[in-house]
Amino acid sequence: MSHPVLCQVNAGIATLTLNRPQKLNAIDYAMADALLAHLDALETDASVAAVILTGAGDQAFSAGGDIPEFSRSVGLGPLSAVRDFVRRGQAMTARIEAFPKPIIAAVNGLAFGGGCEITEAAPLAIASEQALFAKPEIKLGMPPTFGGTQRLPRLAGRKRALELLLTGDSFPPAHALALGLVNQIVPHGELLPAAQALARRIMRHSPVAVASILTAVTRGINLSIAEGLQMESEQFARMVPTHDLREGLDAWIERRQPHYLGR
Q1: Cα separations in angstroms, 83 against 39, 77, 90, 96, 110
Q2: pLDDT tens digit sequence for 133-143
Q3: Which residues is 243 bridged to in the sheet?
Q4: Residue 232 annotated to the active site
Q5: Strand order in the sheet with 60-62
Q6: How far apart are CA 176 and CA 260, in angstroms?
Q7: Which among 172, 161, 101, 186 is positioned nearest to 133, based on CA atoms?
Q8: Closest Cα partner for 137 from 159, 104, 115, 108?
Protein backbone atom coordinates (compact mmCIF):
# COMPACT_ATOMS: atom_id res chain seq x y z
CA MET A 1 0.00 0.00 0.00
CA SER A 2 1.45 3.38 -1.02
CA HIS A 3 1.95 6.14 1.51
CA PRO A 4 -0.66 8.94 1.25
CA VAL A 5 2.04 11.60 1.70
CA LEU A 6 5.63 11.18 0.57
CA CYS A 7 8.49 13.03 2.27
CA GLN A 8 11.92 13.68 0.80
CA VAL A 9 14.57 15.89 2.42
CA ASN A 10 17.44 17.36 0.40
CA ALA A 11 19.78 20.22 1.29
CA GLY A 12 17.56 21.51 4.07
CA ILE A 13 14.33 21.45 2.03
CA ALA A 14 11.62 18.89 2.76
CA THR A 15 9.29 18.09 -0.14
CA LEU A 16 5.91 16.69 0.88
CA THR A 17 3.95 15.12 -1.96
CA LEU A 18 0.23 14.37 -1.74
CA ASN A 19 0.27 10.86 -3.14
CA ARG A 20 -3.08 9.64 -4.47
CA PRO A 21 -2.60 10.46 -8.16
CA GLN A 22 -5.21 7.91 -9.23
CA LYS A 23 -7.75 9.93 -7.20
CA LEU A 24 -6.33 13.32 -8.27
CA ASN A 25 -4.74 13.52 -4.81
CA ALA A 26 -8.12 13.83 -3.13
CA ILE A 27 -7.66 14.40 0.59
CA ASP A 28 -8.99 11.45 2.55
CA TYR A 29 -8.69 11.14 6.31
CA ALA A 30 -5.50 9.08 6.07
CA MET A 31 -3.83 11.75 3.90
CA ALA A 32 -4.80 14.59 6.25
CA ASP A 33 -3.51 12.63 9.25
CA ALA A 34 -0.28 11.73 7.45
CA LEU A 35 0.33 15.34 6.43
CA LEU A 36 -0.10 16.49 10.03
CA ALA A 37 2.26 13.76 11.26
CA HIS A 38 4.94 14.78 8.74
CA LEU A 39 4.65 18.43 9.75
CA ASP A 40 5.00 17.48 13.42
CA ALA A 41 8.22 15.63 12.62
CA LEU A 42 9.62 18.35 10.36
CA GLU A 43 8.99 21.10 12.89
CA THR A 44 11.55 19.61 15.27
CA ASP A 45 13.99 18.42 12.56
CA ALA A 46 16.88 20.87 12.77
CA SER A 47 18.14 19.79 9.33
CA VAL A 48 14.98 21.13 7.64
CA ALA A 49 14.60 24.87 7.08
CA ALA A 50 11.78 24.98 4.52
CA VAL A 51 8.96 22.80 3.20
CA ILE A 52 7.57 22.43 -0.32
CA LEU A 53 4.11 20.91 -0.66
CA THR A 54 3.04 19.52 -4.02
CA GLY A 55 0.94 16.77 -5.64
CA ALA A 56 1.88 13.49 -7.29
CA GLY A 57 1.38 13.12 -11.03
CA ASP A 58 0.80 15.70 -13.75
CA GLN A 59 -2.92 16.33 -13.31
CA ALA A 60 -3.58 17.55 -9.81
CA PHE A 61 -2.20 19.29 -6.77
CA SER A 62 -5.36 18.14 -5.02
CA ALA A 63 -8.90 17.90 -6.34
CA GLY A 64 -10.24 18.48 -2.81
CA GLY A 65 -11.73 16.27 -0.15
CA ASP A 66 -12.47 12.61 -0.74
CA ILE A 67 -16.20 12.90 -1.40
CA PRO A 68 -17.19 9.21 -0.99
CA GLU A 69 -15.47 9.06 2.40
CA PHE A 70 -16.91 12.41 3.49
CA SER A 71 -20.36 11.34 2.31
CA ARG A 72 -20.28 8.37 4.67
CA SER A 73 -19.52 10.72 7.56
CA VAL A 74 -22.41 12.97 6.52
CA GLY A 75 -24.68 9.93 6.61
CA LEU A 76 -23.85 9.49 10.29
CA GLY A 77 -25.08 12.97 11.15
CA PRO A 78 -23.69 16.43 11.96
CA LEU A 79 -21.54 15.39 14.93
CA SER A 80 -19.67 12.75 12.95
CA ALA A 81 -19.33 14.92 9.84
CA VAL A 82 -17.93 17.86 11.79
CA ARG A 83 -15.61 15.70 13.91
CA ASP A 84 -14.25 13.51 11.12
CA PHE A 85 -14.18 15.92 8.18
CA VAL A 86 -14.40 19.56 9.18
CA ARG A 87 -12.20 19.54 12.29
CA ARG A 88 -9.60 17.36 10.59
CA GLY A 89 -9.45 19.60 7.53
CA GLN A 90 -9.38 22.80 9.54
CA ALA A 91 -6.61 21.42 11.76
CA MET A 92 -4.62 20.59 8.63
CA THR A 93 -4.91 24.04 7.06
CA ALA A 94 -4.36 25.81 10.40
CA ARG A 95 -1.16 23.81 10.90
CA ILE A 96 0.07 24.77 7.43
CA GLU A 97 -0.79 28.43 8.01
CA ALA A 98 0.92 28.66 11.42
CA PHE A 99 3.92 26.40 10.73
CA PRO A 100 7.12 28.04 12.06
CA LYS A 101 9.11 27.17 8.93
CA PRO A 102 8.13 28.50 5.50
CA ILE A 103 5.81 26.24 3.53
CA ILE A 104 5.67 26.80 -0.23
CA ALA A 105 2.75 25.26 -2.10
CA ALA A 106 3.93 24.13 -5.55
CA VAL A 107 0.58 23.88 -7.35
CA ASN A 108 1.13 21.47 -10.22
CA GLY A 109 -2.43 20.97 -11.49
CA LEU A 110 -6.00 21.03 -10.22
CA ALA A 111 -6.39 22.82 -6.89
CA PHE A 112 -10.08 22.44 -6.21
CA GLY A 113 -11.87 22.63 -2.87
CA GLY A 114 -9.48 21.45 -0.17
CA GLY A 115 -6.55 21.78 -2.58
CA CYS A 116 -7.37 25.44 -3.03
CA GLU A 117 -7.77 25.83 0.74
CA ILE A 118 -4.29 24.37 1.31
CA THR A 119 -2.97 26.95 -1.17
CA GLU A 120 -4.80 29.73 0.70
CA ALA A 121 -3.31 28.56 4.01
CA ALA A 122 0.27 28.17 2.78
CA PRO A 123 2.39 31.27 3.46
CA LEU A 124 3.79 31.14 -0.09
CA ALA A 125 2.64 29.50 -3.32
CA ILE A 126 3.90 29.05 -6.87
CA ALA A 127 1.62 27.81 -9.63
CA SER A 128 2.40 25.88 -12.77
CA GLU A 129 0.93 27.27 -15.98
CA GLN A 130 -1.15 24.07 -15.97
CA ALA A 131 -2.71 24.80 -12.58
CA LEU A 132 -6.45 25.36 -12.30
CA PHE A 133 -8.28 26.56 -9.21
CA ALA A 134 -11.88 26.33 -8.03
CA LYS A 135 -14.14 26.64 -5.01
CA PRO A 136 -16.70 24.02 -6.12
CA GLU A 137 -18.25 23.12 -2.75
CA ILE A 138 -21.41 25.08 -3.64
CA LYS A 139 -22.05 22.45 -6.35
CA LEU A 140 -22.28 19.84 -3.59
CA GLY A 141 -24.80 21.94 -1.68
CA MET A 142 -22.36 23.00 1.04
CA PRO A 143 -19.87 25.72 1.97
CA PRO A 144 -16.13 25.13 2.06
CA THR A 145 -15.06 23.55 5.34
CA PHE A 146 -11.26 23.73 5.52
CA GLY A 147 -11.20 27.51 6.01
CA GLY A 148 -12.11 28.63 2.49
CA THR A 149 -14.90 30.99 3.56
CA GLN A 150 -12.44 32.81 5.83
CA ARG A 151 -9.03 32.84 4.17
CA LEU A 152 -10.03 33.62 0.57
CA PRO A 153 -11.94 36.81 1.51
CA ARG A 154 -8.93 37.91 3.55
CA LEU A 155 -6.65 37.34 0.55
CA ALA A 156 -8.86 38.54 -2.27
CA GLY A 157 -11.49 40.80 -0.70
CA ARG A 158 -15.10 39.99 0.11
CA LYS A 159 -16.73 40.55 -3.27
CA ARG A 160 -14.12 38.79 -5.39
CA ALA A 161 -14.08 35.85 -2.99
CA LEU A 162 -17.87 35.59 -2.88
CA GLU A 163 -18.09 35.43 -6.66
CA LEU A 164 -15.87 32.36 -6.65
CA LEU A 165 -17.51 30.81 -3.57
CA LEU A 166 -21.08 31.31 -4.82
CA THR A 167 -20.56 30.27 -8.47
CA GLY A 168 -18.08 27.43 -8.04
CA ASP A 169 -16.48 28.50 -11.33
CA SER A 170 -12.89 27.47 -11.98
CA PHE A 171 -10.23 30.11 -12.55
CA PRO A 172 -6.76 30.04 -14.13
CA PRO A 173 -3.43 30.75 -12.44
CA ALA A 174 -3.35 34.31 -13.79
CA HIS A 175 -6.51 35.08 -11.81
CA ALA A 176 -5.07 33.34 -8.74
CA LEU A 177 -2.03 35.61 -9.05
CA ALA A 178 -4.23 38.71 -9.34
CA LEU A 179 -6.16 37.64 -6.24
CA GLY A 180 -3.00 37.17 -4.20
CA LEU A 181 -3.54 33.42 -3.92
CA VAL A 182 -0.13 32.62 -5.48
CA ASN A 183 3.16 34.51 -5.65
CA GLN A 184 4.15 33.61 -9.20
CA ILE A 185 3.38 31.44 -12.22
CA VAL A 186 6.06 29.37 -13.95
CA PRO A 187 6.23 26.86 -16.82
CA HIS A 188 5.16 23.43 -15.64
CA GLY A 189 8.63 21.89 -15.89
CA GLU A 190 10.13 24.68 -13.80
CA LEU A 191 7.68 24.43 -10.88
CA LEU A 192 9.76 22.51 -8.35
CA PRO A 193 13.03 24.27 -9.27
CA ALA A 194 11.25 27.61 -8.78
CA ALA A 195 9.90 26.53 -5.39
CA GLN A 196 13.35 25.30 -4.36
CA ALA A 197 14.93 28.57 -5.50
CA LEU A 198 12.44 30.55 -3.40
CA ALA A 199 13.15 28.31 -0.41
CA ARG A 200 16.90 28.86 -0.80
CA ARG A 201 16.41 32.65 -0.95
CA ILE A 202 14.65 32.45 2.42
CA MET A 203 17.18 30.00 3.87
CA ARG A 204 19.98 32.55 3.47
CA HIS A 205 18.58 34.28 6.53
CA SER A 206 18.28 33.53 10.23
CA PRO A 207 15.81 30.67 10.82
CA VAL A 208 14.83 32.32 14.10
CA ALA A 209 14.02 35.58 12.30
CA VAL A 210 12.09 33.68 9.61
CA ALA A 211 9.96 31.98 12.28
CA SER A 212 9.45 35.33 14.01
CA ILE A 213 8.18 36.97 10.82
CA LEU A 214 5.87 34.05 10.03
CA THR A 215 4.41 34.25 13.54
CA ALA A 216 3.97 38.02 13.49
CA VAL A 217 2.19 37.99 10.12
CA THR A 218 0.02 34.93 10.73
CA ARG A 219 -1.15 36.01 14.17
CA GLY A 220 -1.25 39.72 13.49
CA ILE A 221 -3.17 39.77 10.22
CA ASN A 222 -6.54 39.29 11.91
CA LEU A 223 -5.88 41.72 14.76
CA SER A 224 -6.39 45.46 14.89
CA ILE A 225 -3.37 47.48 13.78
CA ALA A 226 -2.59 48.37 17.40
CA GLU A 227 -2.71 44.73 18.47
CA GLY A 228 -0.70 43.72 15.41
CA LEU A 229 1.99 46.25 16.23
CA GLN A 230 2.15 44.84 19.75
CA MET A 231 2.59 41.36 18.24
CA GLU A 232 5.41 42.71 16.08
CA SER A 233 7.06 44.28 19.13
CA GLU A 234 6.82 41.01 21.06
CA GLN A 235 8.43 39.05 18.24
CA PHE A 236 11.29 41.56 18.06
CA ALA A 237 11.77 41.40 21.84
CA ARG A 238 12.16 37.62 21.59
CA MET A 239 14.94 38.15 19.03
CA VAL A 240 16.94 40.64 21.12
CA PRO A 241 18.79 38.07 23.30
CA THR A 242 19.45 35.65 20.42
CA HIS A 243 22.77 34.87 18.75
CA ASP A 244 21.21 35.49 15.34
CA LEU A 245 20.32 39.14 15.93
CA ARG A 246 23.75 39.90 17.39
CA GLU A 247 25.42 38.06 14.52
CA GLY A 248 23.29 39.84 11.93
CA LEU A 249 24.15 43.25 13.36
CA ASP A 250 27.86 42.43 13.73
CA ALA A 251 28.05 41.06 10.19
CA TRP A 252 26.46 44.21 8.77
CA ILE A 253 28.82 46.46 10.71
CA GLU A 254 31.84 44.35 9.70
CA ARG A 255 30.69 44.05 6.06
CA ARG A 256 30.71 40.24 6.00
CA GLN A 257 28.24 37.42 5.55
CA PRO A 258 26.48 36.40 8.77
CA HIS A 259 26.85 32.90 10.17
CA TYR A 260 23.57 31.94 11.75
CA LEU A 261 23.08 29.01 14.10
CA GLY A 262 21.37 26.04 12.48
CA ARG A 263 21.88 27.27 8.93
Answers
A1: 21, 10, 10, 19, 27
A2: 999 999 999 99
A3: none
A4: no
A5: 60-62, 110-112, 132-134, 170-171
A6: 35
A7: 172
A8: 115
CB atoms within 10 A of CB 46: 9
pLDDT digits (tens, 9 = 90+) for 18-75: 999 999 999 999 999 999 999 999 999 999 999 999 999 999 999 999 999 999 999 9
* CA-CA-CA-CA torsion sign (88, 89, 92, 98): negative
40 and 92 Cβ atoms separated by less than 8 Å = no
Distance of CA 146 to the CA centre of its chain: 12
Residue 152 has pLDDT above 80, yes or no: yes
Q: Which domains does the chain have, with CATH numbers?
A: 5-203 (3.90.226.10), 207-254 (1.10.12)
Q: Choose, from 43, 69, 97, 117, the residue flagged as catalytic.
A: 117
Rounded CA-CA distance 66/2 in Å is 17
pTM: predicted TM-score of the whole model, two decimal places: 0.96
| Separation CA 199–CA 128 (nearest Å) | 17
Task: Read off the pLDDT of residues 100-112 as tens digits, 9 standing for 90 and up.
Answer: 999 999 999 999 9
Sign of CA dihedral 139, 141, 144, 150: positive
Average pLDDT, the chain: 96
Q: Which of 43, 137, 163, 254 is catalytic?
A: 137
Q: Closest Cα partner for 52 from 44, 60, 64, 61?
A: 61
How far is it, in rounded angstroms, from Cα 136 to Cα 161? Answer: 13
Average pLDDT over residues 144-162: 97
Active-site residue flag, 117: yes
